[in-house]
Every structure is written in structure tokens, then in C-alpha cells.
Specification:
alpha/beta, 20 helices, DNA Cyclobutane Dipyrimidine Photolyase, subunit A, domain 3, binds flavin-adenine dinucleotide, 495 residues
Length: 495
Amino acid sequence: MFNDAQGSPTWRAPTWRNDAGTVILATMIDPERITALNRLPVRSGAAFVLYWMQAAQRADCNHALWFAAAEADRLALPLVVVFVLADYPSATAPHYRWMLSGLQKTAAVLRDAGIGFRLRRGEPLKTVLEVAESAALVVVDRTPARWSVTAKAALAVQSGVAVVEVDGESVIPEAVASPKQEWSARTLRLKIEGAVASYASRPLPPVPSPRHPATRIQIPGDGLPGRTGPDEAALFAAYDAAPGPAYPGDRSPEQAFPCSPGEAAGRTRLEAFVQDRLDRYDGDRNDPLKDGSSGLSPYLHFGQVSPLVVISAARAQGGPGYPAFAEQLVVRRELCRNYVRYRPLDYDAWEGLPAWSRTALDSAVSDRRAYLYTRLQFEAATTHDPYWNAAQEQLVRSGTIHNYMRMYWGKMILAWSATPREAFATALYLNDRYALDGRDPNGWAGVAWCFGLHDRPWPARPVYSTVRSMVAAGLRRKFDADAYACAWAPGQNPS
Ligand SMILES: Cc1cc2nc3c(=O)[nH]c(=O)nc-3n(C[C@H](O)[C@H](O)[C@H](O)COP(=O)(O)OP(=O)(O)OC[C@H]3O[C@@H](n4cnc5c(N)ncnc54)[C@H](O)[C@@H]3O)c2cc1C
């Protein structure tokens, strides 16, 4: 179990070196969070410093934003933040509405601080390349997701200007947590738990106030003088119209998320959790009928809350729930990021699973399934099992599933699909399609966990072979599963 008590406050990761000498170190940011993505110099005579915001959709405790602001001050230039709205495969209109509502609030905070903000729509790389032509330096934040890593690598090659990545999205910066793919929570925990105390007690960067306001700056794509590009209000409202189903069986029009979007709402949720529920987290978090966990995953997914703010608040509060919470927030979450970082090509594919579990599941492919469902039947929550249907209803309608039911949900898709590969594709599809916190390393690795990732072989059973199984009786032993099924039965909505 997690224990950061032996963490040394003087623990330091290797120092970052900037071979090209293009940027200086910004105070408040550990050098190991900063990576130069190319060896190009800062462009002289440029009009502004550009921060391409992707993963960290917040103004407060945003290490990339802070670094970009420090560089803008050093170069006596204003700072402009660009966010590009792109069609992400599988995300639903309600997901976009939630994200854009949070982003709109962040944009207002940035502008109040004298930082330019532009919302653009289009192909992200092309859009940012156009803006980068007039930038002195481009700063980017960090997600290990393939589309982002690929676009940033191309930007570094094609932009002709220094591109610097700042990783403020992990408690332990990804680059130093581990140099390789880790096999289990235990192996990662051994490497990082001693460093958590040190990182969790570092100063948190506040909203920066650059010395040169971006009030009147014009950037490529703005159009006529005084304009800031395409109609921003229309872009923020791009998903407000309620579209019908995108395909027969699509349930996205049913989605209504109980949590309010935005940095302030995320902070409020964090404070309430730390004050009222952290102490009983270890006992309550596995009971879907108790409001025992933080509910922060959508805020963490969209970067509306920093994981460093979360760990700092939890650590400052301390108490009996802290070790179990830190285990989930740091070890489990960062294990998922480690998986995505070191399996860039197949973290969301069958091939990303460990060889032992693929072999085991393939060996059981012709075992008789007690029930067989198609993806559309799963999507419609029309299985024989009221507990599973309730979990699917919770996913569709509220955008998340309670963690314990999420494991059961994934394991049963494996049990009731024609083949393990079909099951894997179904679980990944449904999680990415409907989860507000989906399309995330936690989701890709969470689904893969149901198929053996980060786990070990167990005694063999039909269909699962040596992959860990779950059964409905196990739910009933843990909590009042019938009450959960009633709460999420069609027509009910406990949230
Ligand atoms: C099949 C399956 C799919 C999943 N899909 C997602 C997903 O799309 N997005 C997502 O964020 N999580 C996913 N998880 C992990 C986990 O279920 C959620 O992170 C958790 O339920 C979120 O609720 P919370 O914020 O109240 O968590 P809390 O218990 O309050 O934990 C705090 C934070 O720690 C992290 N965390 C907690 N549990 C895990 C875990 N098991 N693995 C990795 N990180 C964890 C999350 O960032 C979470 O917000 C999945 C798990 C499974 C088994």
C-alpha cells in the first residue's frame, strides 16, 4: 500500500538541460517538467509568445501557462493562448458542451490577467502552425495521447521556432517517474512513492500576470484589425444545439452531467471532498451508494483541475484516507500515463495487452458463453443482468460509472461477447463514447486492465482463462447491489 512517509524532501530528479540555450528556467517549475521538443532558437522580432493549450484547460496552477508567461516577460512580449476545437472521434456533443463551458470561464480569467485567448476551429496542427509563424516561442502542455504527441512532434519540425513542452499534468513528471513501461502498480509505486511528498509540497503556480498585456495584439487568423478571428461566441456555442442520435442506437442525446464544468467548480468539489469525505475514502470508495470518492475524474481529464493541486490539498489534510487516495490519484493514474507513454502505437488496441493475457484469452475463445450480446445490445443496456444494465445506464446518462461497477462492467463485457477481441473493442468504444472522463489514459488502461493489463494470472476459469474474473455475487457481498440497480433503472436518475 501507498506510503510516502519515507519520502525525502530533498529528492530531486535529474536536471533538465536546454542544449539549444533557447529558454531560461522559469521559477516555480521543476526543470524535469520542461522538455525542448526541438533545438531551434527563439524567433527574434516576433510579436508574442504562444501557448497552445490542450490538456491543461485552466488558468490556475498551469505549469505550461506559467512557463510561457515567464518567457513572455523575459522577451518583453505579450502572451497569447490558442485552443483549437477539433472533432475528436467518439466524443459526444454533451462532452463538448461541458468542455467548452469550462473553457469559456478559463478564457475570461486569462483575459482579465492580460493574456490573449483565441478559440479556433479546424485541423489543430495546421491552425497552430499558422499562428506559430509570428510567435517567438511555442509552449505546449502534456498529454501522452497519440494525437497530441504526434501533432507536437510535427509542430517542432515544421514551425521553424523553439517548441517547449511543460508537463504539469502528473504529480511526478512522466519523464522521470520511470524510463520504461511498468508492469504493475507495485513496480511503479516502488519508484515514485518516495518522491510524492517532495512534489506535493512545491509551490503551485498561480494565474500569471504578464508584464506586457495582450490587449491589442493581432495574431494570424484574426482577420480585420480589432477582430479576434471567427465569431468566438458562435464557436463556444458550436455544440449547443441538441442533435439527434448520430447512428441507430446512439444514446448521446440522453446525456446530462450532474457536475458543473470549470476550474472553480472543480476546486469547490475538491475542497468539499477533502473536508468531508477524504477521511472515510478507504472504507466508502468501493460502495456506489455512498458518495465516497472525489468525483474529480472529469476535471482531471479536461485539465480543469491540476493533479498537483489535488495531491497538495489531500496531503495537507492528511488523515486515514490519504494513503488510499494518493494510491489512486498518483500511483494508479500515473501508471495509466506510463502505459500510454510507452505503448504509443497500441495503448488502445488488443496488441497493447500483455502477451500472457492475450494467449490466455485466445485459448478460451471457444468456451461456451452463458450469454451473448452485441455492441448495440450492450449500448442499449438490455442484458439479463440488472446490475450491469444499471452501470451502463449510469455511464450513458451521467457520464461516469462508479469505479467498482466500472470493473464489473468491463469484466462482464468480456464474459458475454462472442470473442475477447470483440469484447475489448466494445468496452473501449462504449467507454470512449459515453464517459465524460473517457478518451483518457485512465480509460484506455482501465479497459485493458479488465483484460489482464497491470494484473497477474489467476486460477483458470471458463471464458476468462487465467485473467481475473468477477461475478454478481461479489457485488452483493460488497454493497446493496439491488439498491444500485433500482437507482439506475430506466426512468430513475439518482443524480
Ligand atoms: C473499465 C474501466 C474504465 C475506466 N475508464 C476511465 C476513464 O475513462 N477515465 C478515468 O479517469 N478513469 C477511468 N477508470 C478508472 C476509475 O474508475 C476512475 O478514475 C474513477 O472511478 C473516477 O472516479 P473519482 O474521480 O471519484 O475517483 P477517486 O477514487 O476519487 O480517485 C481520484 C482520482 O484518481 C484517479 N483514479 C482513481 N481510480 C483510478 C484507477 N483505477 N485507475 C487510474 N486512475 C484512477 C482518477 O484520476 C480519479 O479522478 C476506468 C476504470 C475501469 C475499470
